[in-house]
């Protein structure tokens, strides 16, 4: 007699298709390469979009609103009758998906199970419950934990241990250094090893199979991030997890690859035909610490020039809107409680910089001067920010996220007193970052929706 089984297929990044008894559900559906503007599939794939349009899923589950998990360009390929279940605390995202034409859009609630045919899908609490969630999936007598991007706190871990035993855990295996690359001259390189708590948590869960999940992308081929962003290789993950859990099987699932899971173990299954591998698939990450970042001027030369209206849009925002936005946001540390001089440098496609100098005092940001030469400030600089002007335009008009903007913060040597104060400052309190992202939600999806509805 055939054992009940579950087929699990990898799409890309945190995307999966689960199938059982003819019912198909999908998670974090990204059908784009690159996605999130500059995330290139690693290993390489292309998507057969016409074949994807013909797919029918009984439900789609989205773990959180970040654009590498919830993309309207990808959802646009799906049948509008597909039930879409999203974990998100912001009503705006549900309205955007409905405006795209989906007729069954549902909020997910922690610990509240959704039944889809033989599947029981239960969102579990992530460490940052205001942002993301994890998924427990039960079907065919099997129990799978999809951790997505989350870190797990002690309370949730205890709950998950009680929910065991676990047949498979999809574990986010990269500790991406999104913050460190913003200020590389002030960030220490980290050892390419798994955090101790990951090993402890996997030991507590005791899964039969562990899949290194999430990630599966690089930035543009020329990007220095590719050597500085990803400390952990697939090989390192397999070695450390294999040593810590000798009874578990570590299974790498590349895009399109499918496996059949049952009570006896794993076996290969036919791949997803609409995810087409390109080039070598047995590739791995290479980490070189901070990887000698090139100057922002060199990075900016990789981006196309802005038109006159686009450049005017950026400069008008910097001169007029930014000071008001600064007054509406608050820093998370006390570094900006005293007056500071801030220099914002915008680099064009030739690598030339326009420097805008602001006086920051309380909730006021006063533009005191601008020019191509750095010049001598009347008072010592207290903060510097560099960004390609094309990327700032993309953030304003296209919803570009911080992780792809190549912002460079405090890449300078300040006076001794400022350097002492900076030791306790947080780079995400950067004035430009605060003004762009401090009180916005869903800018990427909103820009997508505007473009899609204008077709």
Automatic annotation (TrEMBL):
What keywords tag this UniProt record? Hydrolase
Q: What is this protein called?
A: MBL fold metallo-hydrolase
Q: Which domain of life is it from?
A: Bacteria
Task: Tell me the organism.
Answer: Massilia forsythiae
Q: Could you tell me one molecular function GO term of this UniProt entry?
A: hydrolase activity
């Amino acid at each position: 007699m055939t054992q009940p089984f579950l087929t699990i297929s990898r799409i890309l990044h945190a995307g999966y298709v689960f199938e059982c008894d003819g019912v198909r559900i999908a998670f974090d559906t990204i059908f784009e390469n690159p996605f999130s503007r500059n995330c290139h599939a690693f290993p390489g794939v292309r998507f057969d979009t016409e074949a994807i349009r013909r797919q029918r899923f009984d439900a789609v589950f989205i773990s959180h609103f970040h654009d590498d998990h919830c993309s309207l360009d990808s959802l646009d390929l799906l049948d509008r009758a597909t039930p879409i279940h999203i974990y998100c605390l912001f009503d705006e995202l549900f309205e955007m998906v409905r405006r795209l034409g989906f007729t069954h859009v549902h909020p997910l609630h922690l610990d509240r199970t959704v039944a889809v045919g033989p599947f029981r899908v239960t969102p579990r609490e992530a460490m940052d419950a205001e942002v993301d969630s994890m998924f427990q999936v039960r079907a065919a007598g099997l129990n799978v934990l999809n951790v997505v991007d989350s870190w797990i706190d002690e309370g949730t871990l205890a709950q998950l241990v009680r929910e065991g035993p676990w047949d498979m855990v999809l574990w986010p295996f990269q500790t991406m250094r999104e913050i460190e690359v913003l200020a590389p001259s002030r960030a220490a390189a980290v050892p390419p090893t798994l955090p101790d708590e990951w090993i402890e948590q996997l030991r507590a869960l005791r899964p039969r199979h562990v899949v290194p999940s999430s990630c599966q992308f690089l930035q543009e081929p020329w990007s220095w991030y590719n050597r500085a962003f990803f400390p952990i290789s697939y090989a390192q993950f397999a070695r450390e997890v294999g040593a810590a859990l000798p009874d578990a099987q570590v299974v790498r699932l590349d895009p399109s690859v499918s496996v059949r899971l049952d009570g006896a173990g794993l076996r290969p299954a036919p791949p997803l035909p609409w995810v087409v591998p390109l080039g070598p698939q047995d590739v791995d990450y290479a980490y070189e610490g901070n990887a000698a970042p090139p100057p922002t001027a060199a990075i900016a030369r990789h981006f196309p020039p802005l038109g006159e209206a686009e450049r005017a849009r950026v400069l008008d925002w910097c001169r007029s809107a930014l000071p008001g936005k600064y007054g509406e946001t608050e820093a998370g540390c006390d570094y900006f409680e005293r007056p500071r001089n801030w220099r914002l440098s915008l680099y064009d496609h030739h690598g030339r910089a326009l420097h805008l100098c602001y006086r920051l005092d309380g909730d006021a940001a006063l533009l005191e001067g601008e020019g191509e030469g750095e010049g001598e400030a009347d008072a010592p600089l207290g903060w510097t920010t560099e960004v390609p002007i094309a990327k700032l335009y993309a953030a304003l008009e296209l919803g570009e996220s911080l992780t792809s903007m190549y912002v460079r913060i405090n890449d300078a040597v300040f006076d001794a007193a400022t350097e002492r104060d900076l030791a306790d400052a947080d780079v995400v309190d950067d004035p430009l970052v605060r003004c762009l992202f401090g009180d916005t939600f869903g800018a990427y999806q909103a820009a997508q929706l505007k473009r899609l509805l204008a077709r």
